[in-house]
């Protein structure tokens, strides 16, 4: 059926491309020949048979009440057995969790101070991925002697997947040595009340999955009758924790390497003889590294090796997959697979597809989108929404403890979770790594190719054992080259996706790519320069193609590469198109591309006629969401003066009017003095984002009436002096910019007045949250009042002398505003303030909510006092020559950074300070006491007496870094550094001695860099003792 569909579509495309449309009268309507494609009788017969088969399958599914979650990808032994837990625990301690255990016990024993009606009931959630030790932690707390004495009734319930209120209530009643007689929930809850009313009650709910608030509220009704109730809930899902918790949840992560090794030794070594075997120790450490800190895996593998002295068996375990053993299948796999089973169907396929990434791969949001989108796993989103949908899927996987948040917009997956994805993927999803030719299963449908070394040239080298491949995705490192064999498109004619990310092809794309009649995605993305890209003409025979992405940022409309692109009428995504000088006009290629969602045209100044621009028929593209119109070339070269007889930019822009469904509009390099009337017209009711840059406007278009506009960015309007009332709306009764959230002005050298915003009678910009103004040196007028503004960033506005009172402002960033001062207004809600190069600013007012303050390059003395900043927690002062000899005392200060402040002489006592950085303060000669200091970083010249004071602090210091070239000796004092775990010595070119280092009993990590005179043999011995 697909083959006939392609052949029919080719006929349709050729008819559209020919430009000769014959019209026929059919039933009173006009149709083009392209609308009438003959259907072969063979196709009609096969189509009827296929439809009959689908109807039969549908009837079967209805008869057996099948749902989308009933399918099983791979059989896992005993996976459907209920995982039951009890309160019994064999561990006397929990390695690596002692401090967390103490915290949970403390919260369990604490008395609630609130006087609200439900304050006597508190819920603590323990959250983490499967196998991380949530249940063990809860068991140790439940069985703690002090906890046992403090409660009249203690009950442990393993809830698991089904949160049945009746069943859970019955089990609690049974745990109190009573038989539950009631059948209805009302009767059962009455029985439970009799057992727990006015008593001190501890309840542990292990392995909870329920996300329904109504179930939870119904369940907890009898508990409200207790005198005191503490509930501990263990769960893998953060949404569950947020639903039930009344206090901060306890997040469990994997163990560090030292604790992992300790747990393995405790589990795997039967006696000291085995524990001291160097060969077993070496293999054991590699096995522990493979487990990546997951306690369940460590204990399972350790118990398998406990009575096994044979070194060969240990090596077999190390070199095998963790799923290979029966014990692992019975203990590790079911625990992990339960998380998969609980996923909705749309998330299951996305999770399995992650097996195409190699282990330890950092899952950046962009890379995951590049994987999921071509595989059509983002079914519920279109166009730009697909990226947001992918991010929401990633967040959901993180909330389910399947993946972990690594950094901003990046995630990581535990190796065992990755193994689970590979296990469930079976033969359908296959990953190859390295250079050798790979035999893949005939059942393989999706293949990823991962080059092994970033700087080497790899080859896509796949056997032709599977001609049913639908997708080949290359996942490179962003630094290497790759060879695409010429015959690859002859082998795999059923490909829907060919995506190359992070690797640069060294050869031209073969002409045989035109054989891939089913290809939908063709993508080449690379982070480095490469010699390609010239596409073969056969690409324009790919009539099913809807995404074409090239590594080259643009390709030229006046080269053969674009001749024929108009045949690809299913294209939704295509690269930016550039029109160069000498262009002879073929924008008509775009006429029939009616499904395109994102269109970028550069070099519009080279278009020869309005008629040619109208040939593109932009207005008919109802699916177009983003339109970028750039009158300059791709290098943003300065436009030449308008040539006599050339097309007027205003007429040209008029002819490029888009459909009213547009969401995102950008216009660059426009030389007209005003815009056509369609720009800003209220009929564009879905327009959410507008960018205007390098336009020679003398007045703004009216944008304030756009009902959905959320983001507006205006930059490099060099001729604009004033933002008048026309910018908002000339009609005083209209509520302007009602949806605008983000507003930005930048590089507006002549802009001096924006009274058009301030003078509007109705509240202007009622939804504005973020305002950014930069490089507007003449803008000196007072800001309008923005009652909802939260974030204000002002940069290089020398004429600005004052700010208005902004009642909702939360974050203020001011830099290079030399005229602002001597004091800023009081912002009662401000919590973060950054001041950079504001020479006239001398004093800060009272700001009771401020907790983060940064001041840089302010040469004059500034008055900063404790009474005015009672909530300050983070203070960062750098390059302030006018800073006084002593920092004020801030009782709440948590983190302090001082950099290059030559006049600083003394640091006073700060009782809450946790982290301190001091850099290049050569005059510092006295320091106070810091009883909570945990992290200390010192750099630059240090006086000997000051260094001695730092190293003699009676504080729980855990992390110490010293960067100081003049130092010859560092006198460490072990009696004061009993908690020091990490020590870094760097760029200490004269350092020779480090007394006391060998006696630091808590030291786990020692980093020494660029300290050439320090005894290297001495360091080797120290490092061996710390590992």
From TrEMBL:
Residues 356-421 form the Disease resistance protein winged helix domain. SUPFAM superfamilies: L domain-like, P-loop containing nucleoside triphosphate hydrolases. Residues 1-26 are annotated as: Disordered. Residues 116-270 form the NB-ARC domain. GO terms for molecular function: ADP binding. InterPro entries: Apaf_helical, LRR_dom_sf, LRR_R13L1-DRL21, NB-ARC, P-loop_NTPase, WH-like_DNA-bd_sf, WHD_DRP. Gene3D superfamilies: Helical domain of apoptotic protease-activating factors, P-loop containing nucleotide triphosphate hydrolases, Ribonuclease Inhibitor, Winged helix-like DNA-binding domain superfamily/Winged helix DNA-binding domain. GO terms for biological process: defense response. It holds the Pfam family NB-ARC. Keywords: Leucine-rich repeat, Plant defense, Repeat. PANTHER family: DISEASE RESISTANCE PROTEIN RGA3 (PTHR36766:SF40), PLANT BROAD-SPECTRUM MILDEW RESISTANCE PROTEIN RPW8 (PTHR36766). This is Uncharacterized protein. It comes from Oryza punctata (Red rice). The lineage of its organism: Eukaryota, Viridiplantae, Streptophyta, Embryophyta, Tracheophyta.
């Amino acid at each position: 059926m697909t083959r006939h569909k392609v052949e029919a579509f080719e006929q349709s495309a050729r008819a559209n491309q020919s430009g000769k449309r014959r019209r026929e009268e059919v039933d009173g309507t006009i149709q083009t020949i392209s609308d009438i494609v003959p259907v072969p009788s063979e196709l009609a017969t096969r189509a009827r048979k296929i439809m009959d088969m689908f109807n039969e399958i549908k009837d079967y599914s209805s008869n057996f009440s099948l749902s989308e979650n009933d399918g099983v990808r791979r059989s896992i032994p005993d996976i459907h057995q209920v995982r039951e837990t009890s309160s019994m625990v064999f561990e006397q301690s929990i390695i690596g969790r002692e401090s967390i255990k103490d915290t949970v016990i403390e919260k369990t024993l604490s008395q609630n101070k609130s006087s609200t009606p439900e304050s006597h009931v508190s819920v603590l959630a323990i959250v983490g991925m499967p196998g991380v030790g949530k249940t063990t932690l809860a068991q140790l707390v439940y069985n703690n002697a002090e906890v046992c004495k403090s409660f009249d009734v203690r009950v442990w319930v393993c809830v698991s997947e089904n949160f049945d209120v009746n069943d859970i209530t019955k089990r609690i009643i049974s745990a109190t040595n009573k038989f539950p007689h009631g059948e209805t929930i009302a009767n059962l809850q009455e029985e439970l009340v009799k057992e727990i009313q006015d008593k001190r009650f501890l309840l542990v709910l292990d392995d909870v999955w329920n996300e329904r608030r109504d179930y939870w509220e119904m369940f907890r009704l009898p508990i409200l009758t207790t005198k005191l109730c503490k509930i501990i809930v263990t769960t893998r899902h953060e949404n569950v924790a947020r639903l039930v918790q009344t206090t901060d949840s306890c997040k469990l992560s994997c163990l560090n390497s030292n604790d992992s090794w300790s747990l393995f030794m405790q589990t795997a070594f039967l006696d000291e003889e085995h524990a001291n075997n160097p060969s077993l120790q070496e293999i054991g450490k590699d096995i522990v590294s493979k487990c990546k800190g997951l306690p369940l895996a460590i204990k399972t593998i350790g118990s398998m090796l406990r009575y096994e002295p044979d070194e060969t068996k240990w090596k077999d375990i190390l070199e095998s997959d963790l799923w290979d053993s029966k014990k692992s299948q019975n203990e590790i796999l079911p625990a992990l697979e339960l998380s998969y089973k609980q996923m909705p169907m749309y998330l299951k396929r996305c999770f399995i597809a992650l097996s195409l990434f190699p282990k330890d791969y950092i899952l950046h949001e962009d890379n995951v989108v590049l994987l999921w989108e071509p595989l059509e796993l983002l079914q519920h989103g279109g166009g730009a929404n697909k990226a947001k949908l992918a991010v929401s899927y990633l967040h959901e996987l993180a909330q389910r403890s399947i993946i972990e948040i690594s950094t901003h917009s990046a995630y990581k997956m535990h190796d065992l979770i990755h193994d689970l994805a590979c296990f469930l993927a079976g033969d359908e999803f296959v990953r190859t790594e390295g250079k050798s030719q790979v035999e893949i299963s005939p059942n393989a449908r999706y293949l990823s190719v991962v080059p092994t070394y970033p700087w080497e040239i790899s080859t896509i080298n796949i056997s032709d054992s599977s001609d049913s491949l639908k997708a080949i995705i290359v996942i490179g490192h962003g630094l290497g080259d790759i060879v695409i064999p010429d015959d690859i498109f002859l082998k795999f004619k059923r490909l829907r996706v060919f995506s190359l990310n992070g690797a640069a092809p060294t050869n031209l794309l073969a002409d045989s790519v035109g054989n891939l009649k089913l290809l939908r995605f063709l993508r080449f993305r690379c982070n480095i320069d490469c010699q390609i890209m010239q596409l073969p003409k056969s690409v324009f025979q790919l009539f099913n193609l809807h995404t074409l992405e090239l590594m080259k940022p643009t390709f030229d409309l006046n080269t053969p590469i674009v001749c024929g692109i108009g045949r690809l009428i299913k294209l939704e995504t295509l690269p930016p198109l550039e029109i160069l000088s000498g262009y002879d006009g073929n924008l008509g290629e775009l006429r029939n591309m009616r499904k395109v969602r994102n269109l970028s045209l550069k070099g519009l100044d080279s278009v020869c006629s309005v008629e040619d621009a109208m040939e593109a028929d932009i207005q008919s593209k109802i699916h177009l969401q983003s339109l970028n119109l750039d009158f300059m070339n791709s290098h943003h070269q300065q436009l030449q003066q308008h040539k006599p007889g050339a097309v007027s930019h205003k007429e040209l822009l008029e002819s490029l009017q888009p459909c009213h469904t547009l969401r995102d509009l950008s216009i660059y390099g426009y030389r007209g003095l005003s815009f056509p009337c369609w720009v800003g017209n209220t009929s564009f009711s879905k327009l959410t984002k507008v960018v205007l840059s390098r336009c020679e406007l003398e007045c703004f278009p009216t944008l304030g009436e756009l009902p959905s506009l959320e983001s507006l960015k205006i930059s490099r309007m060099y001729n604009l002096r004033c933002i008048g009332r026309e910018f908002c709306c000339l009609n005083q009764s209209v509520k302007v910019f009602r949806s605008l959230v983000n507003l930005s002005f930048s590089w507006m050298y002549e802009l001096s007045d924006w009274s058009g915003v301030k003078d509007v009678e109705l509240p202007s910009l009622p939804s504005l949250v973020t305002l950014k103004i930069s490089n507007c040196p003449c803008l000196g007028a007072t800001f309008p009042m923005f009652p909802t503004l939260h974030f204000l960033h002002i940069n290089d506005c020398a004429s600005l002398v004052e700010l208005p009172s902004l009642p909702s402002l939360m974050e203020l960033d001011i830099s290079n505003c030399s005229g602002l001062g001597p004091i800023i207004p009081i912002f009662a809600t401000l919590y973060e303030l950054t001041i950079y190069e504001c020479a006239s600013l001398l004093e800060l007012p009272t700001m009771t909510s401020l907790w983060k303050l940064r001041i840089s390059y302010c040469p004059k003395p500034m008055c900063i006092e404790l009474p005015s900043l009672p909530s300050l927690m983070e203070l960062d002062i750098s390059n302030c020559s006018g800073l006084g000899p002593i920092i004020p005392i801030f009782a709440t200060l948590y983190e302090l950074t001082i950099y290059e402040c030559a006049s600083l002489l003394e640091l006073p006592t700060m009782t809450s300070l946790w982290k301190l950085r001091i850099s290049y303060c050569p005059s510092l000669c006295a320091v106070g006491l810091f009883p909570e200091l945990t992290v200390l970083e010192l750099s630059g010249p240090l006086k000997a007496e000051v260094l001695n004071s730092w190293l003699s602090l009676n504080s729980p210091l855990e992390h110490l870094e010293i960067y100081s070239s003049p130092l010859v000796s560092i006198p460490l004092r072990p009696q004061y550094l009993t908690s020091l775990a990490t020590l870094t010595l760097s760029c200490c070119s004269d350092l020779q001695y480090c007394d006391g280092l060998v006696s630091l009993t808590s030291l786990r990590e020692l980093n020494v860099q660029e300290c050439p005179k320090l005894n290297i043999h001495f360091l080797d011995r120290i490092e061996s003792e710390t590992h």
